[in-house]
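Support case: nickel (II) ion complex. Customer-provided input:
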Amino acid sequence: MKRNILIHPDPRLKKVCAPVDDLSDELRALADDMLETMYDAPGIGLAAPQIGVLERLIVLDCVKEEGATPRPLVMFNPEIISASDETSVYEEGCLSIPDQFAEVTRPAEVEVAWMDKNGKAQRETFDGLWATCVQHEIDHLNGKLFIDYLKPLKRQMITRKMVKLKRELARA
Ligand code: NI
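Agent response - structure generated as follows:
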């Protein structure tokens, strides 16, 4: 089932999310809903707080080439184990901040540990777009948005646009 994506500013997007202790069928269904919502948007990543669920769960799939096999990843309690000194710059966007993009500098490579849908511990090193995306999504679990990396003036400008957008959506 497709879920509604919260638009910034929203207090739920600024919260530190709680760890997932027990994997339930409900949480697995939530992960499926998040993937459906992400693909539909379309986007390459989505974090649970973006649909108003304050738990440490993210989904991502950075396979973008036409016709390539999708690689949906579901991560409960994802954690960055190590990050490279080398950085990379990507133009980031966010489904909670529609149509706004800005360059963000992050570690180019990160090792991430998480629990998968079967409750199994996983660990993998990501680079390229995957590294940026997984860091962006984990930030969401700590109440951090990509615009928090921007200069205050730019951040305020984007936030004002979003306030306006939400007003228009509420009227529609
Ligand atoms: Ni985002």
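The first strand starts at residue 45 and ends at 47.

Case will auto-close in a few days if no follow-up is received.
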